[in-house]
Amino acid sequence: MSTELQKPQTAVTAPSGHRMPGRESADRKQVTQGRWAYTLLTPTLVLLAVVIIYPVVNAIIMSFQKDSGLDPATGFFSEGGPAGVDNYTHWILQQCGGAACPPGTLGAQFWNSMATTFFFTIVTVALETVLGFWMAVIMARTFRGRSLIRAAVLVPWAIPTAVTAKLWFFIFAFEGIANKLFNTQILWTGSEWPAKWAIVISDVWKTTPFMALLILAGLQLIPDEVYEAAKVDGASAWQRFTQITLPLVKPALMVAILFRVLDALRMYDLPAIMTAGANNTSTLSILVVDQIRQGFNTAAALSTITFIVIFLVAFIFVRFLGANAVAAAGTGKAK
Amino acid sequence: MKSNKFLLPAAVAGVLAMTLSACGGGGGGSTATGGGDAAANLDGRGPITYVQGKDNSNVVRPLIEKWNAAHPNEKVTFKEQSDKADQQHDDLVQNLQAKNPNYDVMSVDLIWVAEFAAKGWLQPLKDKTAVPTTGMLESTVKSSTYNGTLYAVPQSSDGGILYYRKDLVQTPPKTWDEMMSMCSIAKQNNIGCYAGQYQKYEGLTVNVAEAINSFGGKIVDDSGKAVVKSDAAKTGLSKLVDAYKAGNIPTEAITFQEEQGRMAFEDGKLLFHRNWPYVYNLAKTDGSSKVKDTFAMAPLPGQSGPGASSLGGHNIAMSVYSKNKATVTDFIKFIASEETQRFYATQGSLAPVLSKLYDDQELVSKLPYLPVLKTSIQNAVPRPVTPFYPAVTKAIQDNGYAAIKGEKTVDAALNDMQSAMEAAGAK
């Protein structure tokens, strides 16, 4: 243990530092271990560089290039050349060649798609948090058939999203089950709000189990003794929930919400399959994919914008909401 | 819980990186354009690869076996793509952009021909690589032509057909107005009158283009300029909009793709239905079809005679990067031959591109819709031939959809359609 006391900081780079035998020189050990660590990490780093860093950097470089344009003299496309920030102003200011983008162009859809993306994110995550919490509280209890319930709850999450989307597509068809069951004649995919709610319902159905599981993991970390002590002190069920369950589960809850928010901000498959983005249900990711067919470089700019938006949201979360929660819980636990 | 401090930023970074790489990945690859050398490898002979979407009815393999048996030194390998048109398009774009010499000859949806030709990826089929197109339906040849040069050869065709209930309507309507006047019959029988495909997807472009073309309007002219702001186009689109407003097109048709429409027709809920020839077999044989013996087919109704169907189908094209262009030329001739076309029709129910096969008794007995389809394809207009097709179809869909739903006047919709196509470069 004395070696660990001498090097409390560098121990971070040597994951198993505290198990070191104290016979050899700690310094030499450190160097060998560091070298080993790098050797073992290299394949992973190379792989990451190839599959993540290269495409990301390439996308950013492409976003500053013009898309190739048609040369009217030859009828062939010719190289676009550098674009400066034109591709970005195209989206953010919705400018198509010096004028406002007319309806029916992808450019005219940017802010609508942004609003739709945030609408879906806020509504679905809110609903999923509430329902997921409820499901988690039920699953955390001990009762007969608990493992069966836990397995059953997981089913929607286990179905691939594309399959889910197709299922709900048929459910919300005009002649579909939804209309038959409630004896309604709603054109679910035929106008804006029914279409949006149809997508929200499908997403909540699919992703609530994910939320429930993450929250359940948090719930199970709370020791039973805390509840027993509270009961002895005469705390009501509601008091136990607000005073014990909520604060103690908060770190896990924040992580769950953060993951869901990041996921929801890049929502693609559900709206793409259920409405193909019609009736103002196009998200930023759908816009990116549509734009890829019309020009890679403009699409690269849009995906970079999407990246920055998601990054900012995540940053706000970690910095102002998540980080505090983690710190508070951390000190609470340490006592 | 302390570990969360480290876990959280790491996880966030991971998720974010995945987001961006997923977005960037699709756009990867070179941005170079200009295409390859159309004068190279003209006499090259040797093994080639044929690229096509999923071969659902098993027509490609027997054909290739037959070719390979006759050409042991110029064997063809079949590269099968997925059955989704979008994925086929993206796969072709990626390989052509990467100048892959192994994509020698490809089956190309006719709406992509102009785009690929303008990118310089397709070999012009003239001089040494010329392939005769005599005897082929004119509209199909037109769909293979860009800027006056033939870049592909029609391979299979498709056209819209009017399905109608012969138990309720004695003679099918010849014009749109006549059809609308028959809608009282539908009302008496408590069924919908007419439906095509009006959900916002490629099918809507087909239907809107048919309305505009049938009344003499045009979407883009021969030089690729958007010309949709015309009185004729206005008349055509108004007919569609008015029919939806009056309820002659049932409200739920705004959610119809081909399949929903087909099911409604088979369920006896439609008097008239615009769809492709594939519906014929299903409506005749589906167990759930209530109209097995009570439906018939006619050409689409137009202004004063048959309407202008949107043309469907595939064309076969040669990559400019191919090393064995002489072999490819022969293979394209083989695909376009009467024998192959007949095999396409009998084995795969694909509509032939050779005019005379439509009057062939043997084929007509197997595919009874051929005579009607011939009229349809003869009057058909290819969807806008433009290298900006993805943007053009988007402009038509967004604004056509808004007009049909009554969110925009026809004038405003055509105006926006025109400006959106111009913004994309079709000017």
Write the layout of secondary structure elements.
The complex is a heterodimer of chains A (335) and B (427).
Chain A: H1 2-6, H2 26-62, E1 69-71, E2 76-78, H3 86-92, E3 95-96, E4 99-100, H4 110-140, H5 146-158, H6 161-171, H7 177-182, H8 192-219, H9 224-232, H10 237-265, H11 269-274, H12 284-292, H13 296-334
Helix pairs in contact in A: 2-13, 3-13, 4-8, 4-10, 5-8, 6-8, 8-10, 10-13, 12-13
Chain B: H1 4-26, E1 48-52, H2 60-70, E2 76-80, H3 85-97, E3 105-109, H4 113-118, H5 138-142, E4 145-146, E5 149-150, E6 153-158, E7 161-165, H6 176-181, H7 183-188, E8 192-195, H8 202-214, H9 231-245, H10 258-266, E9 270-275, H11 279-285, E10 295-298, E11 312-318, H12 325-336, H13 338-348, H14 361-366, H15 370-378, H16 389-404, H17 410-424
Parallel strand pairs in B: 1-2, 1-3, 8-9
Antiparallel strand pairs in B: 3-11, 4-5, 6-11, 7-9, 7-10
Helix pairs in contact in B: 8-9, 8-16, 16-17
Top keywords for this entry?
heterodimer; A: 335 residues; mainly alpha; MetI-like fold; two-stranded antiparallel ribbon; two-stranded antiparallel sheet; 4 strands; B: 427 residues; alpha/beta; D-Maltodextrin-Binding Protein, domain 2; 2 domains; 5-stranded mixed sheet; 11 strands; globular; disordered N terminus
How many E strands of chain A? 4
What percent of residues of chain B are in strands? 5-15%
Q: Give the strand order of the largest sheet of chain B, numbering strands 1, 2, ... along the chain.
A: 2-1-3-11-6
Rg over C-alpha atoms of chain A, rounded to the nearest angstrom: 26 Å
Main sheet summary of chain B: 5 strands, mixed
- CATH level-4 homologous superfamily of the largest domain in chain A: MetI-like
Total domains of chain A, how many? 2
The largest β sheet of chain A comes out as: 2 strands, antiparallel
The ordered H/E elements of chain B are HEHEHEHHEEEEHHEHHHEHEEHHHHHH
Structure description:
- The complex is a heterodimer of chains A (335) and B (427).
- Chain A is built from 13 helices and 4 strands.
- In chain A, strand 1 and strand 2 (76-78) form a beta hairpin.
- Chain A starts with a helix and ends with a helix.
- In chain A, helix 5 packs across helix 8 and helix 12 (284-292) runs antiparallel to helix 13.
- In chain A, 34% of the residues are buried.
- With 335 residues, chain A is an all-alpha fold.
- Chain B is an alpha/beta fold and 427 residues long.
- Chain B has 2 domains: 12-158 and 311-378, D-Maltodextrin-Binding Protein, domain 2 (3-Layer(aba) Sandwich); 161-309 and 388-424, D-Maltodextrin-Binding Protein, domain 2 (3-Layer(aba) Sandwich).
- Chain B contains 17 helices and 11 strands.
- In chain B, the strands form 3 sheets. In chain B, strands 2-1-3-11-6 form a 5-stranded mixed β-sheet.
- The longest helix of chain B is centred in the first third of the chain and has 23 residues, at 4-26.
- The termini of chain B are far apart.
